[in-house]
Amino acid sequence: QVPSPQIWFAHSLAHIFRDTKPEPNNAWKQGLEKFVVRHETKWSAVKNATPLSLRGSLQTMPTWELHVARNEWEAVQLAVRCERNFLWMRVKVEPEVERLFDVQIRYVGYIHLPANSRATPAEELVRKAPADFPDPLLDLPFVPLKANETQPVFVKLRPKRTTKAGVYNVPLIVQTPVGEQKANLRVRVY
Question: For residue 75, which phi and psi values (nearest 5 degrees)?
Answer without folding.
Answer: -135, 160
